[in-house]
Amino acid sequence: MKSHARAVVIGGGIVGCSVLYHLTKLGWKDVVLCERKELTAGSSWHAAGGFHALNSDPNVARLQAYTVQLYKEIQALSGQNVGLHFTGGLNVAATRQRWEHLRSEWARHRVLGLDTRLVGPTEIRELCPLMDVSEVMGAIYDPMEGHLDPYGATHAFASAARLNGAEIHRHTKVVELNANEDGSWQVVTDRGTIIADHVVNAGGLWAREVGHMAGVDLPVVAMEHHYLLTDDLPELKDRVRELPLVLDLDGEIYLRQERNGVLLGVYEKDATPWAVTGTPWDYGDSELLPPNLERLTDSLEKGFRRFPSLSNAGIRKIVNGPFTFSPDGNPLVGPVPGLKNYWSACAVMAGFAQGGGVGLALAQWMIDGEPDSDIFAMDVARFGAYATRPYAIVRAKEFYAKRFQIAYPNEVWPAGRPNKTSAIHRELEALNAVFGVSFGEEVPLFFAPAGTPARENPALRRSNAFSSVRGECVSSRQSVGILDISSFGKYLVSGPNAEQALEYLLAGRMPRVGRIRLTPMLSPKGRLMGDLTSCRLADDEFFIGGSGYLQSWHMRWFDSNLAGAGIEIENMSDRYGGFALFGPNSRRVLESLTEDDVSNEGFPFMTVRRMPIALAPAIVARLSVTGELGYEIYVPALHMESVFATLQRACVEFDGRWVGMYALNSLRLEKSYGIWSREFSRDYSPHMAGLSRFIDYQKPAFIGRDGALKDRDTPPERRLVTLAIAADDSDATGYEPIYRADELVGFVTSGGYGHCVQKSLAMGYLNSTVQTESDELTVTILGEPRPARLVPQALVDPMGHRMRS
């Protein structure tokens, strides 16, 4: 065993071997994998081995498509047969809403470049004669779905990595990890110690234990999962074409052919976590858990109704094996916040659909400093300290039990709630607020009418929130809206080197004392990393605002790029709450809260000041994402209730209204204002996103400067636009395709209804060849093409007079 390595990967399942291979493929040859027993000895060996490219998150879908396409290549490179069966796959709908949902997803596949098609009951029956299609409405057929041999696929990655120079040490248990001052790690094994520049936790079932070695508690939960193998079926005895992989979404069962029988799997409602206090190190490489068929009864009954011949089939084998989940079911990938050169590649529950893509993305991140696409849906930093072990368990159980349920765009599941609440949560509850969740914190979405349940009905079309949101929007444009913004990200950067450090970190110019600037943050390649607001409180003190769900993500970036800069960075997000006021009466409300001069002359647009609000010390910034005259007021959490009481009185006096995030979304669409994770992300450059005007290209040095200059001087293939859509009772939500005649010319990033302009609106990226309003466009919503037109300027106050008044 060597004494030093560029990287040590811990864990020899499909994910660890994929990471190892991709590190060597991208140029790191001096890499090592340590596996405590044999390769595949965790969850990989007993996996069903299915693979597919379909996923509700577009970037995850792209990585899954890459994984599927990689198997032939890795088989040829390694000489190891991976047992590929490209059987095709059916995602089946048996209800109207499911069929609408699948048609909508199929339309999005055009944007993703996935070659899928819609099929009806007759063709479904031809593809899968075992299925009773009497209640089936249709399905998505994907020719690239299928299954493989888990052992062969894992060993193919391992063999290819060895051919590229990697070392693999089986029966080598990592027992200790010690961080060195230079950022390297002592990887202590039962066969010796390796000094590693980087450590990758691909521990699978033991990811929690490998995390504990480094002092981090990753939100990973092992869950029991059953599938059955049947005896041979007469219907398959002489069949030439193999059955497709079938995902019966309404029957809540999946099926594929196994020899002349089938493999039948379920996600039972009685989800069972396994080894919640820790995975035993001696858990075997051929050891299964005792089956519990009683838990499967309801699910199997549904399956037998859809596949009647299976009810009389003999059961050859029952498999109950553990595999890992995160709280939202997506992997935990990337640099672990707070630890230098310690990387996560775990909780990949769909390992044979995602393992190749996870390995590629992580290797790009480690070697190039960033992945090639925005993979925030898999980023370990999407969770914070609130994701405790009990939280992870209840969330993983919920995700498991609802694995096949329709993912409604407006639905927030109840498990693990409430976890974090703002200091005025009870007051907002008393006003009949309906809450969603951001970074574990309850946030108001809208306020239901008094006397009605504070609940939104999950829907693909406009929900019962529609009329309430309309009232909130109209009030905000005509009088004043008040929003709890406690969930926003808030950072205090201070010290004599604060300006110099932020000039390097952020691409925009730093404001003067008392002023505010919008300051994009870029990656080394010049792609967007953040759309932060910089408020300068003093020569050496800045108040930085950003999206609240990016707190761990932001702090990880700050720490990695500003270490040793001689400044202090404090995450104030939980210590400070906040209120946003917007609308023509917002100044009158603010005047009732303070004796400071907040006139237009005394407190102009894009200025910031410390001032007392009611009885509380506050930071007040004059800006608004609604396009109205507006302010953001930040106060210590301990003062939130008293400020709320004062605001409530002012709200009544000036005919104001408490509003939620749905109203904010509607108002910002009317102003054509983009938001992070929708219009702005790692996938886009500043030029594409229309943010070039906020970048100071004259600064001699900032992260991503070379990429930003190149981007500025290169005509973008796509540009960010706003569309008005002739929709009925549903709106675009994201990644719907935009067509000009039959030509795909773009895609939607976000959408909603503009209540004050009475139009369905969407923002999205459009090919630069589409230039004029006269171009006849369509946007596909719930499978139906809807006429759309370009909106050349904001539909409300395009010159911005209101917010500057």
What does this structure look like?
The longest helix has 21 residues, at 58-78. The chain has 19 helices and 38 strands. It is globular and about 85 Å long. The protein has 805 residues and is α+β, with helices and mostly antiparallel strands. Strands 4, 5, 6, 12, 13, 14, 15, 16 and 17 form a 9-stranded mixed sheet that branches. It is 25% helix and 28% strand.
Write the topology of this structure.
Blueprint: E1 4-10, H1 14-25, E2 31-34, E3 50-51, H2 58-78, E4 89-93, H3 96-112, E5 117-119, H4 121-127, E6 138-142, E7 146-147, H5 150-163, E8 167-169, E9 174-179, E10 185-189, E11 192-201, H6 207-213, E12 221-230, E13 245-248, E14 253-258, E15 261-266, E16 273-274, H7 297-306, E17 315-325, E18 332-335, E19 342-346, H8 351-368, H9 389-401, H10 425-430, E20 433-438, E21 441-447, H11 466-478, E22 481-484, E23 489-494, H12 498-505, E24 516-522, E25 528-538, E26 541-546, H13 551-562, E27 568-571, E28 576-582, H14 586-591, E29 608-613, E30 616-621, E31 630-636, H15 640-653, E32 657-658, H16 661-670, H17 686-689, H18 705-712, E33 718-725, E34 737-740, E35 743-754, E36 759-767, E37 777-781, E38 784-791, H19 801-804
Parallel strand pairs: 1-2, 1-11, 2-8, 4-13, 11-19, 22-32
Antiparallel strand pairs: 3-7, 4-6, 5-6, 9-10, 10-11, 12-15, 12-16, 12-17, 13-14, 14-15, 18-19, 20-21, 22-28, 23-26, 23-27, 24-25, 25-26, 28-31, 29-30, 30-31, 33-36, 33-38, 34-35, 34-37, 35-36, 37-38
Helix pairs in contact: 1-5, 1-8, 2-5, 2-8, 11-16
